[in-house]
Each structure stands twice: as C-alpha cells, then as structure tokens.
Amino acid sequence: MRTARLGALAGAVVLGTGLLTVPASATPQEPAQAPPAVAQEGAADTIVHLFQWNWDSVAAECADFLGPAGYGGVQVSPPQEHVVVPFSEGGNYPWWQDYQPVSYQVDNTRRGTAEDFEDMVATCADNGVRIYVDAVINHMTGPQEETSTGSAGTEWEQYEYPDLFGDGSAAYSYEDFAPCYDTIENWDDKWEVQNCQLLDLADLDTGSPHVRAQITRYLNELIAMGVGGFRVDASKHIAEDDMGAIIDALDEVPGFGGAPHVYHEVYGDQTVPYTAYTPYGQVTNFDYKRDIASGFANGDITGLTDMPDHGGLTSAESVVFVDNHDTQRYEPTLTYVDGDRYYLATAFMLAHPYGTPVVMSSYDFQGNDTEGPPNIGEVDGNPAGWITEDSDCSSSDWVCEHRDEAVSGMVSFRNAVSGTGLTERAQDGSSRVAFDRGESGFAAFNASGQAWQLNAPTSLPDGDYDNAAGPGGATVSGGQVSATVPADGALALHVGGECGQDCGGNGGDRVTVTATVHTYFGQEVHVVGSTSELGSWNPADGAALTTGADTYPQWSGSAAIGPDTEWKLVKVSPDGSADWEPGANRVGPAASVTWGQR
Ligand code: LAG
Ligand code: CA
C-alpha cells in the first residue's frame, strides 16, 4: 500500500487514500561544504504551466506578459482529442478529461481548434516563448459502458480508437494494448507498472512498431507546427527502451532549432527511479518539490540553500516546481491558497540555480479536485462539452500565480544572474537566508512572521537597486547591503535592476540618508515613517542604516522619502525596544542629519 501511494500520485487518488505524505526517505540535507555549484540554466529558462488555459488566451499572454517578463516557455494542457465526461448530474466536465486521449487530432478540444493552436505556437515563438506540449502517450481512455464521442467528434470505445489523425489513415485496436489489460496492483513490480493499466486507462503497447509510429507521428506533427518541447505524461509507465526509441525519432524544432526540450513526469521510487529516464531528457523532481514546499510551509529554509541533488538528481537533470496540477489537489503542502509563503517559495526556486523551474498558474478550484476550468458552457455544434472561457487575471476565477509581482520580478532576476554560482551571505535562525548569485545578484528570504533587519556582505556592485521580489529596494554600499526584509517576504537585487527615477516606488525618490547618531553597542538606527517601506511607523520594520568601526557615529543607508513623507530616526535595541528621535517629525528628503537637530 505504501509503495502504491508513493508510486503514482494519481494512484493514491483513485484508491481514495487521501493525501500523500512526505516519505521517510526524503533526501537529507548535506551541510554546505562544497564550492558553489555552477548554474546549469541558460537565460530565460523559466516555464509557466498555464493549466487549462485556452489557446487564444495563451497566445495573448505570450505577447502581453510572458515575453516581456522574460519567461522562456509555457506548458499547455494536452492538445489531443479527449474524452467528454459530463461527470455528475448537471455536468461537471472535469479537468482530467484531457488525460484520456481519443485520438491525436489537435482539431478540437475544450481549449480551441487546431488553427487556434497553431496561431498560439507562432505568436508565442514570435515573443521568444517556447510551447511545451503535455504529451499523453502511455495510454488512451478509461472504460466506458457504451460508445462515446470525443471532443473532436470521434466515436470510440475502450481499446477501439478508429481515427487517430482524422484522415482515416490510422487506428488503435485491442491488440495494440497488449500484453496487460488489468490495473496495476503491485507497484513493486516494474513489469506491471510499465505494462499494466494506470487508473484503468487502456495502456498502449509502446513496444509495438505500429504504436510507436503513431506516437512519433503525433509528436512530430506538433514539432512541425513549431512546438518546442514536451512534458511527457506518466513516463515511468513506459519502458525505458520504448521511451528511448520514441525520443530518438523526434525531429528538430523549426524556428528555435535543435532537438525539442523534453521533460518526463516521473514520480521516482525504488522500483522505477528518476534516473531510468535521464538518458531521454530531464525529469520532474518530486523530491525537490517535497523539500521546498515543506521547508517553506514550516519556516525551515536554511537547509535549502545548498541542494546539489534532491532525489539523487543533478541540477541539469531536474525540472523543479513548488506544486503542479496534481499536487495542488492531492498533496497540497503549499499552494496559492497559502498566500505569501507560497509566493516566497516560488521566488526562492527562481533565485536558486538548481533545476529548470516550472511556475504553476492555476484557476481557483475551491478545493473541489475534479472542478474543470471556468467555462462558457456548451456551444452549439461543438462536441467538446463545456468550453473553457478566456483567462482573465483580473478575475478571482483565474489565480495567475505567474503574474504575482514577486514571481515575475524573480523571472527577471533569474535571467539577470544566469550562469552564476551561489554564495551564501547570511543566515538567521532556520527561517532566514540570503545569498549572492555571482556578482550579478543578491537575494534574501524571510520565512518568518517578523521583519528581518538584514546586514550582509555582497559581491553586487555598490548602488541603489529595486527589489525584484516586491516593493521598495536597497542600497549596496561598501560591499554591504542593509535592508529590511519584510515578514514572509524577499529582497532581490540584481545588476540591470538599478533604481531609476522613482526607485522604491513607495513614497518617493530613493535618497541616501547620512545620520550622526550615538548608540549603545547592539543598537541599530532605522528610518521610520509613514510609508510601508519605512515600516508604517513600526520601528522594527523601518529602513535600517549601517555604520562601521571607522565611520561611527555616522550611519548611512537609503530610503524612499518623498517630499511629503514624514519620518524620524529611531534607535532599535536588540530586544526590540525603540528610542525615538525627540521633536517633531521630519518631512521630506534630507541628505545629512544629526539626531535631534533639524
Ligand atoms: C499524470 N501523470 O502521470 C497526470 O499528471 C495526472 O493528472 C493524470 O491523472 C494521470 N497521470 C493520467 O494521465 C488525471 C486525474 C485522474 C484521472 C486521469 C484520467 O488525476 O483522476 O482519472 O487523469 O482522466 C479518472 C478517474 C479515475 C478513473 C480514470 C479512468 O479519476 O477514477 O479510473 O479516470 O476512467
Ligand atoms: Ca505503459
């Protein structure tokens, strides 16, 4: 039973065993002894999974947002003809219809037509964004009492799919599903896992030349349309040799050039390890997912900085994520529902050089696992059931995690620091950590409920920088960064992200404040004021100034202070107590001030 639960995420669901738990075998974290790893990612490697978005909406998003924000790819939901399941009375049409192919026709799904699909691929390519198709090639449909109709109008029954390409040229029938027609029961038996039925889904005989030829035709037709890569569904249920033959037969991608990027969905375990598929592409690293999701959920993140091989996989072998469309339903350690902590984890994934990141973008399913995407109901003459509505990030129905300020800002950060190593720069307890990315970036993460007054060395050149992970910014001066990292927030500075006209964006221009203040040992000086960057009059959250042995009692730092911004200097003691500057509030920027004198 335990093996079955670890063996397939979906398996746990059909068995009704509830949520998966983190296995006892989670990779232990080694202490940070190794020299900083060289980053594996190229620029613009971030992929967003626009789960269930229709083709027109993906195209618009590539042009309006993803290209400009620096995303490199979109994983789209499966484009092949799917079953149509009016699930419950009144109709539900669950999202998982898509994972039951009826044919390889791209002609019509709930997400649009083949023409819409091709337009999307072209528009995204024009904006530098690669389309990754979720390729369902291990199986066809589950059982059905009578003959049914697929989304593109093809009549089918289980094991009989009469028209794979819409031109009468190819079909699958009973013998194409040999040798096993039963559900996988023993998840410790590799032969069974690869040959028998996952979730009662008719399992293709991928060893047969006829079956392989249809799969490679489907994938190569997508490549000919300009599709740049694949997320292969349920890879571990396809024997390695069969997978190798299929991947070998793929054409080069027109436009982008070279072989398609392939990543395999492998829920690695002892029976079928992740590494079985690394010869054929990258693999989805669920060990990473468990580590980062539980680490951030528990505020225990310092062990995540140095993470050379989650699940025994190298950075180059791994596709990483905080959640995906399955885990957000069946194993929801950390998802959009959790708010700040979730976005913080996503920001960390993007800041860190390990793996190729996939950002999840969801619709709000309100805890109903089967709930399909927001839709416009049935459309006359369209056999695809409920038709997906256009995505709208300003509506609460579409969550659009990828548009979150911290997430999209960190995509820029990631591109700016591409190819650099990681050097840890600060740690505070187990919930706060900061690191450099070469000399190109500095990022700090605070997975706690209190603001973090950070002082750390950095290799980032001196200057004023915007915060890529949220409002405000910080100054690097004399190779030191001093800043307030908000509760459950991040600070990320990068070359190319220097402050422009209205740095900080939060109460006015960023100005350097130099203050003469005598303090007791251990006290800090904060600029505290009315804006959120200045702590909203909360001394601990104000902008911290720094001093040094040769500069004391001069303190300096930068803060966004507009002409009307009211503020004061405050000495903050280690126990949190505050000693306010006497007199009236200061108003507006001031370059050089002395405690109490104005
Ligand atoms: C995957 N990766 O390997 C997908 O990420 C995952 O979302 C797919 O399951 C699974 N493998 C098969 O492609 C999803 C749903 C299942 C659904 C299945 C087929 O999580 O719940 O199964 O798609 O539509 C459904 C019913 C099952 C039933 C099956 C066949 O839930 O109870 O046995 O259909 O009728
Ligand atoms: Ca199989």
UniProtKB/TrEMBL annotation:
<keyword id="KW-0119">Carbohydrate metabolism</keyword>
<dbReference type="Pfam" id="PF00686">
    <property type="entry name" value="CBM_20"/>
</dbReference>
<keyword id="KW-0326">Glycosidase</keyword>
<dbReference type="Pfam" id="PF02806">
    <property type="entry name" value="Alpha-amylase_C"/>
</dbReference>
<keyword id="KW-0106">Calcium</keyword>
<dbReference type="InterPro" id="IPR013783">
    <property type="entry name" value="Ig-like_fold"/>
</dbReference>
<dbReference type="InterPro" id="IPR017853">
    <property type="entry name" value="GH"/>
</dbReference>
<keyword id="KW-0479">Metal-binding</keyword>
<comment type="similarity">
    <text>Belongs to the glycosyl hydrolase 13 family.</text>
</comment>
<dbReference type="InterPro" id="IPR013780">
    <property type="entry name" value="Glyco_hydro_b"/>
</dbReference>
<dbReference type="InterPro" id="IPR013784">
    <property type="entry name" value="Carb-bd-like_fold"/>
</dbReference>
<dbReference type="InterPro" id="IPR006046">
    <property type="entry name" value="Alpha_amylase"/>
</dbReference>
<dbReference type="InterPro" id="IPR031319">
    <property type="entry name" value="A-amylase_C"/>
</dbReference>
<dbReference type="GO" id="GO:0016787">
    <property type="term" value="F:hydrolase activity"/>
</dbReference>
<dbReference type="InterPro" id="IPR006047">
    <property type="entry name" value="GH13_cat_dom"/>
</dbReference>
<feature type="region of interest" description="Disordered">
    <location>
        <begin position="574"/>
        <end position="598"/>
    </location>
</feature>
<dbReference type="Pfam" id="PF00128">
    <property type="entry name" value="Alpha-amylase"/>
</dbReference>
<dbReference type="InterPro" id="IPR006048">
    <property type="entry name" value="A-amylase/branching_C"/>
</dbReference>
<keyword id="KW-0378">Hydrolase</keyword>
<protein>
    <recommendedName>
        <fullName>Alpha-amylase</fullName>
        <ecNumber>3.2.1.1</ecNumber>
    </recommendedName>
</protein>
<keyword id="KW-0732">Signal</keyword>
<feature type="signal peptide">
    <location>
        <begin position="1"/>
        <end position="26"/>
    </location>
</feature>
<dbReference type="InterPro" id="IPR002044">
    <property type="entry name" value="CBM20"/>
</dbReference>
<feature type="domain" description="CBM20">
    <location>
        <begin position="503"/>
        <end position="598"/>
    </location>
</feature>
